[in-house]
C-alpha cells in the first residue's frame, strides 16, 4: 500500500486546549503534489459494556454539549498519559457507574473518525459486577440507566442510542455472548 | 433530562481551517459552576454500504493521515452546505467507487464522537449498482476493494477494518438484509 501513502513535510501546532490539540501538517500526496491536513490529536479512550448476571447493561445518560442533547451511552473515558486501556476502563466504570467488575474481556479496537482525528477506542466487556465507591469527576454529571441487553439493542433501532462507540459496543457484546454459547 | 443540561454563556471561535472549525464555549454546569467546552464543528457526513447483486460490498482503501495507516472503509464524505445526506451519499459513491445505485435505503444515523465533536453520520445501503463516470477529487487517492459481505464482516473480527462508520455500516447492513428475508 506504499503507493497510497502521504509523506509529512512539516507540522505546525495550531491549538492546544484543555481537551483538544490541533496540528496542521503539510504533506506530499501520492502524485507528488502537496496538500494540508488538519489533525485533531486525541489521547485515545476506553469504553465498557458492563453486564449484570441477569444480562442487563449499565448505561449512562449525560449532556453532550457539542450535540446539545442528553446522550445515552456506555461508560467511557479518555486515557491518561501512557495509561493502559484496561486500567482506564476499570477507573471509568467505577467513576461513572459506581460499579467495579471481576471479569474483563476485550471486545474490539477501532478509530472513531480517522479522516481528521487519531482517536483510538478500546472496547471491553465487564462482568461479575460489584458495588465500588467510585464517583464522577466534579464537572461530570452522569446518570446510570440499567436495561436488559436486548432492550439496549432495541434502543439502537429506535434511535434512542446514537453514539458510535455505544452502538459498536452493544452489537459486539451481543455477538461475544453468542459466540461463548457455541 | 433538564437537570443534566448545560447552558452556554459565551462562545469563542479559536480555529477556522480548511476542514476543521473549533470553538471554545463557556458553560454553566448543572451544579451552577462554570466550565469550558472545546467543540470541533463538523458539517456532518454520509456513508454508504454499496452491495452488488452477488452480495459483495464495494470498500475503499485510502491513506488516513491522522492514524498514518491505509484504512479499509466504506465510501463516505462530508456534507456540502445544506446538502441532503442522500444526495451527498450518491455523489460520494460515484466519486469514490465509480458506481451509482438504483436502490437506496437508510440504515442508521449516529454521532461519531459526541464528547467533543458535533459530527452526525448518515448511513445508507445502496443496491442495484451500475457503472457511472465518477472519479475522486484531485487530492483524494482511493482504491476500490470488492469483497463478499461475509468476508467484510470477518475483516472486522480480524482487525483489518477498524473504522467506526464502516463497522457500524457493515453490521447494520447484515442485519438489514436478514430482516428483509423474514
TrEMBL record, chains A, B:
Q: Which PROSITE patterns match?
A: NUDIX (PS51462), NUDIX_BOX (PS00893)
User: One GO BP annotation here?
Assistant: ribose phosphate metabolic process
MF term (GO), any: hydrolase activity
Keywords in alphabetical order, please.
Answer: Hydrolase
The cross-references to SUPFAM superfamilies, in alphabetical order and at most eight, read: Nudix
- Where do the Nudix hydrolase domain residues begin and end? 41-169
The keyword Phosphoprotein appears for this protein? no
Q: Which InterPro entries match?
A: NUDIX_hydrolase-like_dom_sf, NUDIX_hydrolase_CS, NUDIX_hydrolase_dom
A single Gene Ontology CC term: cytosol
Needed cofactors, names only, are: Mg(2+)
User: What protein is this chain from?
Assistant: Hydrolase, nudix family protein
The protein's organism comes out as Heliobacterium modesticaldum (strain ATCC 51547 / Ice1)
Amino acid at each position: 500500500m506504499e503507493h497510497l501513502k502521504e509523506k509529512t513535510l512539516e507540522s505546525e501546532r495550531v491549538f492546544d486546549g484543555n481537551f483538544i490539540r490541533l496540528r496542521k501538517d503539510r504533506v506530499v500526496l501520492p502524485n507528488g503534489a502537496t496538500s494540508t491536513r488538519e489533525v485533531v490529536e486525541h489521547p485515545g479512550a476506553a469504553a465498557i459494556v458492563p453486564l449484570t448476571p441477569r444480562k442487563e447493561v449499565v448505561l449512562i445518560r449525560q449532556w453532550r454539549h457539542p450535540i446539545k442533547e442528553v446522550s445515552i451511552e456506555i461508560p467511557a473515558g479518555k486515557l491518561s498519559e501512557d495509561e493502559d486501556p484496561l486500567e482506564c476502563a476499570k477507573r471509568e466504570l467505577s467513576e461513572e457507574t459506581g460499579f467495579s467488575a471481576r471479569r474483563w474481556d476485550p471486545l474490539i479496537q477501532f478509530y472513531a473518525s480517522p479522516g481528521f482525528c487519531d482517536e483510538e477506542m478500546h472496547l471491553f466487556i465487564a462482568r461479575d459486577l460489584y458495588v465500588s465507591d467510585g464517583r464522577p469527576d466534579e464537572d461530570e454529571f452522569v446518570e446510570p440507566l440499567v436495561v436488559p441487553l436486548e432492550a439496549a439493542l432495541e434502543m439502537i433501532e429506535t434511535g434512542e442510542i446514537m453514539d458510535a462507540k455505544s452502538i459498536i459496543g452493544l452489537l459486539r457484546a451481543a455477538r461475544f455472548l453468542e459466540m461463548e454459547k457455541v
